[in-house]
Task: inverse folding
């Protein structure tokens, strides 16, 4: 059965590592739903987080391939409930939203978003949450013709395991 898996890999911060990692997905004709690369808690080591919808068998093959790559220190796959994760989105919306009390109340108060910039013709709103929550807000804004721009990050994750367990796996 296909489901969304999140692969987390700790890699040496070297040129071409990301290319080799994404090639493992390309070879299996898998779409990458989200991709995030950032510095990890270990200096010189980056964390690569890739989400894709596939089978358990396919994702395990990818993880095994990643573990055999040079500069990949550790890789494993997870389901959403095994990690602490969030995404962040920025919405550029028409300032006309402020003229409608119910819409502005939803955006400014009930959606757990915040205004990060205001212009004469637009507002930039920041919201974090699950992909579903971010898409729901995007669809609502788009339906009402308020949406002028949209950008979403990939998954940002932390392990539920203790730091010591992770250090043992990476070392």
Result:
């Amino acid at each position: 059965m296909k489901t969304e898996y999140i692969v987390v890999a700790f890699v040496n911060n070297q040129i071409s590592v990301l290319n080799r990692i994404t090639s493992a997905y390309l070879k299996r004709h898998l779409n990458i739903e989200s991709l995030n690369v950032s510095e990890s808690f270990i200096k010189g080591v980056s964390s690569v987080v890739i989400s894709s919808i596939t089978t358990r068998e396919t994702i395990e093959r990818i993880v095994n391939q990643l573990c055999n790559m040079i500069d990949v220190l550790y890789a494993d796959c997870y389901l959403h409930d095994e990690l602490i994760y969030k995404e962040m989105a920025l919405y550029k919306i028409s300032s006309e939203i402020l003229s409608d009390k119910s819409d502005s109340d939803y955006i400014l108060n009930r959606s757990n978003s915040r205004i990060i910039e205001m212009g004469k013709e637009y507002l930039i709103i920041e919201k974090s949450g699950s992909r579903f929550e971010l898409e729901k807000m995007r669809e609502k804004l788009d339906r009402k013709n308020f949406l002028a721009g949209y950008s979403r990050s990939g998954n940002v994750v932390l392990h539920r395991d203790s730091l010591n367990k992770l250090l043992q796996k990476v070392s």
Notes: Strands lie at 3-12, 32-39, 45-54, 72-78, 83-94, 113-118, 122-129, 147-152, 156-159. Residues 111 and 133 are 9 Å apart (CA to CA). The mean pLDDT is 89.
